[in-house]
Amino acid sequence: MTVLDDIIVGVREDMEARRRLVSLDELKERAAATAPALDAWAALGGPAASRDELKVIAEIKRRSPSKGDLASIVDPAALAVQYADGGASVISVLTEQRRFNGSLADLDAVRAAVDIPLLRKDFTVDEYQIWEARAHGADLILLIVAALSDAQLREFSALSHELGMNVLVETHTPEEIERAAAAQARIIGVNVRNLKTLDVDRSLFASLAGSIPAGAVVVAESGVRNADDVAHYAGNGADAILVGEALVSDSTPRERISEFKAAGAAAIAVRT
Ligand SMILES: O=C(O)c1ccccc1NCC(=O)[C@H](O)[C@H](O)COP(=O)(O)O
């Protein structure tokens, strides 16, 4: 069993426990009473012609399978405010509990604190989680191609769009990019972390980004340590970066985001 398979076993068990407490019908009522989703596609640059700066998706993650404990984050809302002040375009809230020590309560707290789009970062394997995301104020959800069939990719994307949300479709191989494109994904991420082995290969982004269909927002996910990594991703076609560890373990995340945006803008200016 791969790391990803193992995570998904736990995700399903935890979801079934929540479903026993909150039915799908109740979730639908809550979603209907939630403020409309913000436009994460536009926040990440929207049409290709207007993507003149690097966008940052700043992640709130306490722990990870690859690194163990990263940061206690007792007040995720306060961290989210720092991220937004630093110029993050989207905040990613890891809600998976067993491996990442996240929760939907984190998403609620962040939703109440900032007015920029939120990504519910989890391992989506059931439509129940998509209704949950919307009911808790998410604007964007993650679909990991390696974890889903083509039919699930299409159906989960369609449901997310019906609920007004956008979808970040995560890939790691050329075949997965083809599958994301076939599902008409408008925001496509290349995760340089292999979720089956946890290996990080930053050079993977440059080798895959060129095969992402023109028009899609291109997100470089994982492995950002410093401004050089940001420049590398931006110089090789990233419209946005998704950063977790480097921000949660920094004492000045607001300044770090500003620095990353400046490095990205400089690399994009050379690229275009
Ligand atoms: O982070 C992990 O160890 C991990 C393990 C298994 C599945 C997913 C995992 N992380 C999710 C992510 O992709 C990252 O949280 C995200 O891209 C940010 O990465 P980083 O900046 O390297 O923290």
Structure characterization notes:
By secondary structure, this protein is α/β, with parallel strands linked by helices. It has one domain (3-271): Alpha-Beta Barrel (TIM Barrel), CATH 3.20.20.70. It contains twelve helices and ten strands. The protein has helices spanning 3-21, 24-32, 40-43, 76-86, 104-113, 127-135, 150-162, 174-182, 203-209, 227-235, 245-248, 253-271; strands spanning 55-60, 63-64, 68-69, 90-94, 118-121, 140-144, 166-171, 187-191, 217-221, 240-243. The strands form two sheets. It has an eight-stranded parallel barrel, surrounded by seven helices. Strands 2-3 form a two-stranded antiparallel ribbon. Strand 7, helix 8 (174-182) and strand 8 (187-191) form a beta-alpha-beta unit. The chain is globular. The model has no long low-confidence stretch (mean pLDDT 97). It binds the ligand O=C(O)c1ccccc1NCC(=O)[C@H](O)[C@H](O)COP(=O)(O)O. Keywords: Amino-acid biosynthesis, Aromatic amino acid biosynthesis, Decarboxylase, Lyase, Tryptophan biosynthesis. Pathway: Amino-acid biosynthesis; L-tryptophan biosynthesis; L-tryptophan from chorismate: step 4/5. One of its GO terms (molecular function) is phosphoribosylanthranilate isomerase activity. It comes from Arthrobacter bambusae. Residues 4-259 form the Indole-3-glycerol phosphate synthase domain.
CATH topology heading = TIM Barrel
- The succession of helices and strands, N to C, reads HHHEEEHEHEHEHEHEHEHEHH
The CATH class name reads Alpha Beta
How widely separated are the two ends?
43 Å
Continuous helix count: 12
The total number of structural domains is 1
Radius of gyration: 17 Å
CATH homologous superfamily grouping = Aldolase class I
Q: How many E strands? A: 10
Bound molecules: the ligand O=C(O)c1ccccc1NCC(=O)[C@H](O)[C@H](O)COP(=O)(O)O
